[in-house]
């Protein structure tokens, strides 16, 4: 029991380190604030900070124990569309957190996770230690895609209790509110953000910066 509790505590303490990969160095707050505080990010910022942006269906999940003593979960994804990154028909993505059949578990506050069978738009960090990725901006970097029995498809983002930093005011603000929007609107926003990122990268390469 105590070993499981220690693993949980370690996971919480390491959440700030994992955030470095989630935000590509853009969302870490220094000074007097918690080092694990994430920036409030709009779609363009989320895409800019992501190494991989894709729409996928979750086929399976496998929890495993890392060499660092933390629990991770490997998710097998059927990729439906890749907006940014190498286009592949399928991917295995490792996220921090999860639970083993022994009861040993690691929880990363504010991270969120994936569920087998769901479709989602994912904005993911580069791979870090243990081959782990995280959602850019924590829960801000994941939208579930839902297909109702009637009507058009929608996308939803769950609320998060973790405080965020407003980059404009420098103040901590409440975590993301639950959000539901039309699937077509989400894809349009994501596509526009990816196009803007591609244009910036092309411009930087052209000027040698």
Write up this protein:
The chain is 25% helix and 31% strand. It is α+β, with helices and mostly antiparallel strands. The protein has one domain (2-207). The strands form 3 sheets. Strands 4-3-2-7-8-9-12 form a 7-stranded antiparallel β-sheet, with helices on one face. It has a 3-stranded mixed β-sheet with strand order 1-10-11, with no helix packed on it. A hairpin with a 5-residue loop joins strand 2 (52-65) and strand 3. The longest helix has 25 residues, at 183-207. The model is unreliable at 1-36 (pLDDT under 50).
Secondary-structure map:
Elements: H1 2-13, H2 15-23, E1 38-39, H3 43-48, E2 52-65, E3 71-84, E4 90-96, E5 98-99, E6 105-106, E7 119-124, E8 142-146, E9 154-157, E10 164-165, E11 172-173, E12 179-182, H4 183-207
Parallel strand pairs: 1-10
Antiparallel strand pairs: 2-3, 2-7, 3-4, 5-6, 7-8, 8-9, 9-12, 10-11
